Amino acid sequence: MEIKQPTREHRAYLRVTAPARVAIDGCNYTVNNWSIGGLCISDFSQTTLVGDCLPIQFSLSFKGGINISTNTLIEVVWISSDTKKLGVRFLNLTKIETEFLQQAIDSLQTGEIIPLETIEGINNRDETSNSSQLESTKPALNRNNYKLVLSSVGYIFAGGAIVFYTLLSLQKSFTQMEIKSAALTQPIEPVISTNSGTLSQLYVREGMKVQAGQPLLRINDEEIARSNIDNEINNVNAIARNKIDNIDALNQKIELSRLELAEAEAALQKVAALRQREIEKLQLAKLVNQNKLNAARAKFDSLTIQYKAAKNSLSRLTTLLQAGAVSNEMVETANAKLAEIEGNLKIAKAELEIAQAAASSLNNGDYYNGSAFVGELSRLTVDVKDAERKVKIAASRAIALSQEREQYKKEVQNLERQKEILRQPGRTLGNRKEKNPFYSIYTSPTSGTIVRIAKSPGNKVTRNEPLILLQPEIAQPIIEAYLTQDQVTQVSIGDKVTAVIPELGRSYQAQIVNIDRTGGLLDEVRGQYQFQGSEDQSAYVKLLITDMNRDEKSKLTAGMPVKLEIAKRLNIFERLGFFNRNVK
């Protein structure tokens, strides 16, 4: 098998000549060479033009009965009428299919898998050699047969091993991604000057290991030290004045909040009194209405009984009239009485319904004043709740402002004490060890290694200037990696990954502690980050190694490369769909 390196003019991917075939419109063609970008077809007999798009089936065969094929589209890039060759490029390979072909190319390069035709050629040469030996000498027949059997068994085991490691590599490519853009980092802590002066003495050298609290250097300058003290006192005075101004402003706000609280409480009392009077009105109205309801119900019941009696009497007289036992005048009188009672019954029923409606309205907070339904209990109840809310807000604001004022008062008191300390001749400033205003000894803030010394004895030092760079001893080594925006979707904070450090020849367990995707490309039109589809490694991931001993930590240096092995979050339906299309 020949590996063809890409040319600058036409090829962007590594091409291989491993046997492959394509089917176009039912015709099978031999592939001269191929890559993940496209392929070259030999003996092409169909009519086509540059730029045409054709559907094809691309097939690969490997030892062990592994046949892989995929259906895709190609675009004709060039045509050679003399050699009947056709150059095409793939149009719609999925990401999984591209990774699969790249894995096959890598495995072909390393010899992990062998094309079927190559293995068959080796077997044919062995069989030819064995046949010639059998013909040349008969006594060697058994020996050659024995060698052939051993060779066959060896090929079987080798083929099985190749297939196993090929499938293992393919499975690893589907279930795991490797990140090679990672490196060890170690924090650098600067020792910053807190005063101005002259560096008079160094107690350490670069590369030296120090312990926390160990003296590092000495700075002294009487004039600058006194000037610094005056400047610090002036700064403290300025801060104190600012806080006093804040206290004055808070006093005004507190008075205003107290007035608002008093107004809110007064409004609450007023609306609460109105609501109470409304409740009393409703109670009185309910009592009156209940009496009316009882009277209307009694009247309705009485007229109902009278109506039934008058109706029975009229029926009886009508029967007697037919028998000639009573006069017609008696029947008419009974009929008139029935009509009168019926009219009174209807009036009583209407009065009863009005009384019942009034009772229902009273339950809702409304009552009848003789001409219309009135009532403000619901509104007043809402007003009471709103007033209570305003009182609570005003009280909370007054308390918060008072607490803020007390905090400012404490800070002013602390500033006054700080000024008294600054005026003392034997004070201790910052991390200065000795009580002397004219020189200061700086000590190491933590245990670690001196990486760089920025000043030499005799150099002038200004405030807030880095003097020494210290690499602290860290409990857990830090790894920083940059992933693409698609890769970073496969990880989350807290995930465990494998970190391989080639220089140490070991792998360690690491845990993701921070993810920052804001390095994604900014879409200026929509003003949003485009996190998907970008091949730029713009997503930052920070990890901590959790299982490294002290001796191994001492061998680490900043910038040491690390390879991360991260388990993918598989979409099982996507994976099964890929194998159903491509593995036959």
UniProtKB/TrEMBL annotation:
GO cellular component: cell envelope
Coiled coil: 247-425
Keyword Kinase: no
InterPro entries hit by this protein: UPF0194_transport (IPR050465)
Domain of life, per lineage: Bacteria
Subcellular localization, as worded in the UniProt entry: Cell envelope
Keywords: Coiled coil, Membrane, Plasmid, Transmembrane, Transmembrane helix
Principal localisation: other
Transmembrane segments: 148-168
Protein name: Secretion protein HlyD family protein
Organism: Chroococcidiopsis thermalis (strain PCC 7203)
